[in-house]
């Protein structure tokens, strides 16, 4: 098995290995080698995906046939029950003593900061970055807004919901295994794509899934994602 | 791409894609809906490979647990939603078969895949033939096309395919590898 080295790549041999993997003729050991390579070699992974896509229509030749109804209840038990067992009643942050201590400290720090800054904060702010373009792809639910900060020469690209009949927002969600998704906020349309994560939420980012959904302007009215999820990925440890 | 549902009406791939997105947010209703829409398509894939109904149902359970766990890895640009689900189902079933009937590893050996470049005329015929797998399989010799199909649908190993077709193991490897390159040529890249 070749290493994922771009220089020693033989595309025809790789096409064959990718095709053999998708057909399923390889041994268990070779299948694990291919899967290890898939994780690190995007070009090879694209070959495998292409075979999956091309060959998948063969499956439509098979007559559809439902499994017995008990299959779903077993799946449901396996997926949902461990989560229900683990779930602990979560105390509201407003009832948390450490939160109020922290909040009091923060207020003190803020007032000290204001005194230290003095008249500085009343000076006129530098000109705000100006929106200069909206970028959209055909059929893509996501677009990009370009803001240009003329003073610094910086162009900022912010993801936004693509223009639709009614204005939409992109909302970011934190999804932990076995728990309901928590909103991390709406992606700012005018800023630089930064979202401040509350202290209490920060440790929860590790290993969780971040997902973006399209919501009514200003974010989901219910606190639960209502629109299609257009992007998601698991956060690495940091 | 559309896939045919149980009662003749077809299910749109973008609905499946939407549901997978919802499942990545741990939406249980979306999961139930995806199961209802797709189980009668994925079950026969398992049944054809594993043979026994109980084995196929056990595999199906594992497959939907994987779909629940891996929904966040689905990237709509890479494959269609149905191809993604079918890949999870097939690879799980193939792993079950390989664990049941182990075969020798051979990925290190030399690949005898020379002399498969199609002639220019062949190339132009292939292009006008279209890029669908059915059309491209028809362009292969009958026994080679049926070996490709049996590998994909039944999960047969090289050894099992060689026995079925009554040819030496190495001949079967050469058949399939050359067929794969011809299919790639025909399907376009």
From TrEMBL, chain A:
GO terms for biological process: regulation of translation. Residues 103-229 form the Anti-sigma K factor RskA C-terminal domain. GO terms for cellular component: plasma membrane. It comes from the Bacteria. Pfam families: RskA_C. GO terms for molecular function: sigma factor antagonist activity. InterPro entries: Anti-sigma-K/W_factor, RskA_C. This is Anti-sigma-K factor RskA. It comes from Rhizobium subbaraonis.
From TrEMBL, chain B:
Residues 132-183 form the RNA polymerase sigma factor 70 region 4 type domain. The keyword Ligase does not apply. It comes from the Bacteria. Keywords: Sigma factor, Transcription, Transcription regulation. Residues 42-101 form the RNA polymerase sigma-70 region domain. PANTHER family: RNA POLYMERASE ECF-TYPE SIGMA FACTO, RNA POLYMERASE SIGMA FACTOR SIGZ. Belongs to the sigma-70 factor family. ECF subfamily. This is RNA polymerase sigma-70 factor. It comes from Rhizobium subbaraonis.
């Amino acid at each position: 098995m070749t290493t994922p080295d771009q220089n020693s790549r033989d595309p025809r041999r790789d096409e064959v290995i990718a095709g053999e993997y998708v057909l399923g003729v390889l041994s268990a050991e070779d299948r694990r080698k291919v899967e290890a390579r898939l994780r690190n070699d995007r070009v090879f992974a694209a070959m495998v995906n292409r075979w999956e896509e091309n060959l998948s229509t063969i499956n439509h030749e098979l007559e559809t046939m439902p499994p017995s109804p008990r299959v779903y209840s077993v799946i449901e038990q396996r997926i949902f029950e461990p989560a229900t067992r683990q779930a602990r009643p979560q105390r509201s942050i407003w009832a948390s003593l450490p939160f109020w201590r922290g909040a009091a400290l923060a207020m003190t720090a803020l007032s000290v900061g204001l005194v230290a800054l003095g008249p500085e904060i009343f000076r006129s702010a530098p000109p705000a970055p100006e929106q200069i373009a909206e970028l959209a792809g055909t059929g893509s639910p996501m677009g990009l807004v370009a803001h240009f900060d003329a003073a610094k020469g910086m162009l900022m690209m912010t993801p936004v919901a693509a223009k639709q009949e009614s204005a939409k927002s992109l909302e970011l969600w934190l999804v932990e295994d076995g728990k309901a998704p928590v909103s991390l906020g709406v992606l700012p349309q005018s800023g630089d794509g930064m979202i401040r994560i509350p202290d209490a939420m920060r440790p929860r980012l590790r290993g969780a899934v971040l997902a973006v959904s399209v919501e009514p302007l200003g974010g989901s009215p219910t606190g639960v994602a209502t629109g299609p999820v257009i992007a998601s990925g698991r956060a690495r440890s940091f | 791409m559309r896939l045919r549902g149980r009662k003749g009406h077809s299910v749109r791939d973008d609905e499946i894609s939407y549901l997978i997105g919802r499942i990545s947010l741990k939406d249980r209703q979306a999961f139930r809906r995806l199961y209802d829409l797709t189980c009668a398509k994925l079950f026969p894939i398992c049944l054809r490979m594993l043979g026994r109904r109980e084995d196929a149902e056990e595999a199906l359970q594992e497959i939907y647990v994987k779909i629940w766990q891996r929904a966040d890895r689905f990237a709509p640009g890479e494959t269609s939603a149905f191809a993604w689900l079918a890949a999870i189902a097939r690879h799980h079933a193939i792993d079950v078969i390989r664990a049941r009937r182990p075969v020798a590893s051979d990925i290190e050996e030399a690949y005898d895949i020379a002399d498969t470049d199609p002639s220019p005329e062949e190339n132009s015929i292939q292009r006008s033939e279209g890029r669908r797998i059915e059309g491209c399989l028809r362009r292969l010799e009958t026994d080679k096309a049926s070996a490709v199909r049996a590998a994909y649908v039944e999960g047969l190993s090289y050894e099992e395919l060689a026995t079925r077709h009554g040819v030496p193991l190495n001949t079967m490897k050469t058949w399939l590898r050359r067929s794969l390159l011809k299919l790639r040529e025909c399907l376009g890249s």
